[in-house]
Specification:
The complex is a heterodimer of chains A (about 190) and B (about 250).
Chain A lengths: L8 H11 L3 H22 L3 H18 L10 H24 L8 H5 L8 H6 L2 H8 L3 H11 L5 H8 L3 H26 L1
Helix pairs in contact in A: 1-2, 2-3, 2-4, 3-4, 8-10, 9-10
Chain B lengths: L2 H12 L5 H12 L3 H19 L7 H12 L3 H4 L14 H17 L3 H30 L4 E7 L7 E7 L3 E7 L8 E8 L6 E6 L7 E5 L10 E8 L10 E6 L1
Antiparallel strand pairs in B: 1-2, 1-8, 2-3, 3-6, 4-5, 4-7, 7-8
Helix pairs in contact in B: 1-3, 6-7
The chains are: A mainly alpha (about 190), B alpha+beta (about 250).
Chain lengths: ~190, ~250
């Protein structure tokens, strides 16, 4: 599979061409980045049909919002991944809301915080081998906070409630976890080339 | 703010979990182009890209086919319509606006092909779905007996202004203001929660439309137990960590 380093000239140039209405550039950007986005969306949403719908929404947004992409704010890949993540989490929340049969409680964190309602991230992680490999190299406590935030869309204080840990601990673990992950992924990228 | 603190905010922000006053603070740093904040966020986002890139999955071919078809049917002019920023304001009162916008989009497409019309409907359905989600959250807050209603009255800069805050300490709140003058360029209104003798805590930044109406969905404020008052001041567009400008609205709970 072709892979491009985030922010590489080609992906930035492709976005600029998409902004100018170049359908061919859109097609190439899709080929380059859709597998990455879809892998992430599937990690959040287990239902393949919902994941395909979200992927389509995300790339439709890419087509529409390309003129507003600002390279100073980050790479096109980051721009795409953040959108894919947000959309997938939105969908996850709406599915959960729909699945609730009782009167909706006021505080979403109350229900998200009850451990029996949400799938255990460790179990969900099992079917996603490679992400698991990168995340598996993190200490368990750091891995949990990143998974709960990135794949389940919990806020820092919701994570603190869910894990029964002080908010400050959650914040520190999030930062340390991302630091460690950067090292792990950076190492893999080097060894792959 | 030291490096570690900025890195911590950036990590939580990139993961989508930064809330309340910290979010306002970090977005203000980004808005101001603070190099440490911008660099820290880029690092975190690139790491998350790496995480996503480590487990790619081939999407069903039908997705691309549908997209290419949809794009082929879109005139370039449609793409350049200004769109309201999604992230900032899950606005309470925008229902009428969203419906109006949807009507414009739908109206435009009537003269067009069936394909285009379907497309516009899909877009407006997406918009209305988002609208519905934010309104459901509002209804849940209104339904809870623990929710208090705080009425804010206009102060000398805008004596005709009125506002109302539906506030629930655990769930957050919904704030709606009317009769405010349009803020000057580079300025915005900032809502503050005042608890006891503590310094005011930012509850978010908002602007008003041509009719002087603005609203804000407020997340729960960590560490703020019982709010005694809400106030609105005029501040630089990204908001500040502490109020500096003139006070426009004040209401005690």
């Amino acid at each position: 599979m072709p892979s491009v380093a985030p922010g590489s000239e080609s992906s930035t140039a492709l976005i600029a061409a998409i902004a100018a209405g170049d359908r061919d550039a859109f097609s190439r950007f899709y080929d380059l980045t859709a597998p990455m986005a879809f892998g992430l969306i599937r990690r959040v949403l287990r239902d393949p049909e919902a994941a395909a719908e979200v992927l389509q929404e995300v790339f439709w947004q890419v087509w529409q919002d390309a003129p507003r992409y600002d390279p100073k704010r980050g790479s096109p890949e980051a721009w795409l991944v953040m959108r894919a993540k947000t959309r997938a989490i939105d969908r996850l929340r709406s599915i959960r809301r729909r699945d609730r049969t009782f009167v909706a409680p006021v505080d979403e964190s109350v229900t998200q915080g009850s451990p029996d309602r949400a799938p255990d991230p460790a179990v969900v992680a099992e079917d996603r081998g490679l992400i698991q490999t990168a995340l598996a190299q993190l200490p368990e406590a750091q891995r949990r906070v990143i998974e709960l935030a990135f794949f389940e869309g919990l806020t820092q204080s919701e994570i603190a409630t869910r894990l029964g840990e002080p908010l400050g601990t959650v914040k520190t673990r999030t930062r340390l976890g991302l630091d460690r992950l950067r090292g792990v992924l950076g190492g893999e990228r080097l060894s792959a080339t | 703010m030291n490096r570690d603190e900025i890195d911590e905010l950036a990590a939580a922000y990139a993961l989508g979990g930064l809330e309340g006053e910290e979010r306002v603070r970090f977005e203000a740093l980004l808005e101001a182009g603070d190099p440490d904040a911008v660099r820290a966020l880029r690092d975190c986002e690139d790491t998350l890209v790496g995480l996503a890139a480590a487990a790619p999955e081939s999407p069903p071919p039908a997705v691309k086919a549908a997209l290419m078809e949809r794009i082929a049917a879109t005139p370039a002019s449609v793409r350049t319509l200004p769109r309201r920023s999604r992230a900032l304001w899950p606005v309470v009162l925008s229902g009428a606006m969203a419906a109006g916008l949807a009507a414009v989009v739908v109206g435009w497409s009537v003269s067009s092909t069936y394909e285009k019309r379907l497309d516009a409907l899909v877009q407006s359905a997406e918009r209305l779905r988002a609208e519905l989600r934010s309104q459901q959250a509002v209804i849940a807050i209104l339904r809870d007996p623990a929710t208090q209603v705080v009425v804010l009255a206009g102060l000398p800069p805008a004596p005709g202004a009125r506002a109302r805050m539906m506030w629930h300490a655990q769930a957050g709140g919904v704030f709606v203001a009317t009769g405010l003058p349009a803020p000057p360029d580079g300025k915005a209104y900032q809502l503050w929660a005042i608890a006891g003798g503590n310094a005011p805590v930012s509850a978010g930044v908002f602007t008003v439309d041509a009719a002087g109406t603005g609203s804000l969905a407020v997340r729960p404020l960590p560490g703020v137990a019982a709010v005694n008052a809400f106030a609105v001041t005029l501040e630089p567009a990204g908001g500040l960590p502490a109020p500096s400008g003139e006070m426009y609205l004040l209401g005690k709970s």
